[in-house]
Amino acid sequence: MAAAKATGVAAAATSAVFRSNQELTRLARSGQLAAARRLFDEMPHRNTVSYNAMLSALARHGRLADARRLFDEIPRRNLVSWNAMIAACSDHGRVADARELFDAMPARDDFSWTLMVSCYARAGELKLARETLDRIPGKKCTACYNAMISGYAKNGRFDDAVTLLREMPAPDIVSWNSVLVGLTRNEKIVRAAQFFDEMPQRDMVSWNLMLEGYVRAGDLNAAAGLFERVPSPNVVSWVTLLNGYCRAGRIGEARELFDRMPERNVVSWNVMLGGYLRLSHMDEAYRLFSEMPDKNSISWTTMISALVRAGKLQEAKDMLNKMPFDSFAAKTALMHGYLQSKMIDDARHIFDALEVRDAVCWNTMISGYVHCGMLDEAMVLFQQMPNKDMVSWNTLIAGYAQDGQMRKAVGIFRKMNQRNAVSWNSVISGFVQNGLCFEALQYFLLMRRDAKMADWSTYASCLSACADLAALQVGRQFHSLLVRSGYISDSFAGNSLISAYAKCGRILEARQIFDEMAGQDIVSWNALIDGYASNGRGTEAISVFREMEANGVRPDEVTFVGVLSACSHAGLIDEGLRFFNSMTKEYSLQPVAEHYACMVDLLGRAGRLSEAFKLVQGMQIQPNAGVWGALLGACRVHKNDELAQFAAEKLFELEPRKTSNYVLLSNISAESGKWDAAENMRTLIKERGVHKPPGLAGST
DNA sequence: TATGCGTAGT
């Protein structure tokens, strides 16, 4: 009697656990992690299945560390617990951790082997994946062959994939589809179509993959034709074609298809929404969003990201607050938006509230501080960051370098255990930008000794250093290094050579490089025009501009900086004014501060100071230091003390720490006999603690 | 009821 009662109680408890486990899985699968966790914590009895379900739920939501903690707490781990933990590591790209678990587990089944093969294959470690497959004792399951085939195919090794497909004992539809997906994702559409025709069996996945292949190849007609032949298209087939029309901007046809769909799910709605948002059809998007029968976190994120991109940060924030989900993507999108608008406090607010932060997130916030010139804050955050990656270090180095603090940049660089090309290039280009060209070249030599990782960017910086030093012979050496390294065929390299030769006064050699280039791009033309302009050959610069137009290359903003400065150097006032006007009228380019600086310089040289000043006052954008500097320079030549004083004040506001501005104004005062003013200026320099930027003496 | 290989949306 008592025994029967006890058995009954135990059975009731078991079925209660069973039911709770079902609910736990349901919550986890519908994305309700917090609710799942609450249920799990409140369960009076848990079995291994409960732990395994919770572990997978945590892993699926990016909480790898929590999943691992739970794994370590499981009282009676079974094979599924080990497999689930390996899957979690694999999904997060933690190959070494997966391998460690795999080696430590007490027994292995088909799942374990398939997971390990898949883990290596997804990490691109095809050799290790194959070794694992070959090590499987006894009969291998179909899934593990398929994992290997998928690995080969996704990495473009189609022959290996097909060979294994032929060798395996019992290929199934997944095996065939695994090859097909490799072909379609790698844009091998012709071979994919051929393979598709030869497949002994096809299911909906095969048809949908082929559809996707045509969409990716941009062949919407072929996709639509195939769609007509799909025996009974399912919602994925419809969505694939719909997405094709949306991505191609063919929104009318997309909407027609959407309206014709026999069944729509949240994905169909999201694709249609994305189509409108891609084209900035905000009204349509809002209408669709309000009509959606259900919205998931992707629907909200799509909408919020679009608002962020459109610069509507307040609307994006309001929407984020209304969102009933917790979406990392939506929050980080808004954070990005804030950082781009330099709203650093709002960005930091989101960052601090994030429950999970990945390296990208930390690096974004750090580079946000750098972007706002708040280097101390960037450094503090960098020091707090738990797992710094190369990007974190490089961001900080570039930040200090661009701020002129080369001593700090180098200090951080030297603390790095490992460096990549970006680390070296940040330091080298930092030296060049700060006028420390010898140091740049010195570091190039160190880089060659440490590792041969120089790329076109390295050479571009070094060539620029040579140009600034007018070190023609060293420049020629870089030219030959560039030839030997093979980067010469890169248009970036060719363009930096053009600039270097031009800056060394060798405009003919610059022209020769230009003529020998395989394909001149807009940057090449700009470099040549600027080269002629800075060599005082304004007329020739303008004729290169004409040549460029004749070649059908459309000038951009940079082109006009070169052209306007050419006019300025050559004293072609009316020509310059005409170009400045044609920029907006003919080419719909909005002038930026640099163009205004050129125009001020142009008018200033001709003594037309009041016109220059009027131009500055009429600017649609805030004049920068270059503009005021140009005006100040012109005032000096033409002895206009009053305007000089005004321009200088503006300049001091913008660049309070730049000595040369103070010196320039002091000289203007002195030249016009105002010795008191000159003396005052020198005192001001001392008072404001303005000093020359520190060099690197002693730190290398 | 929990873990593996192939298809759609940020």
Automatic annotation (TrEMBL):
PPR repeat copies, ranges: 47-81, 141-175, 203-233, 234-268, 296-330, 358-392, 420-450, 490-520, 521-555, 556-586
InterPro entries documented for this protein: E_motif, PPR_At4g14850-like_plant, PPR_rpt, TPR-like_helical_dom_sf
Transit peptide as UniProt keyword: yes
Source taxon at top rank: Eukaryota
Signal peptide stretch: none
Entries under Pfam families matching the protein: E_motif, PPR, PPR_1, PPR_2
GO biological process, one term: system development
Keywords: Repeat, Transit peptide
Segments passing through the bilayer: none
GO molecular function, one term: RNA binding
Protein name in UniProt: Pentacotripeptide-repeat region of PRORP domain-containing protein
Organism: Triticum aestivum
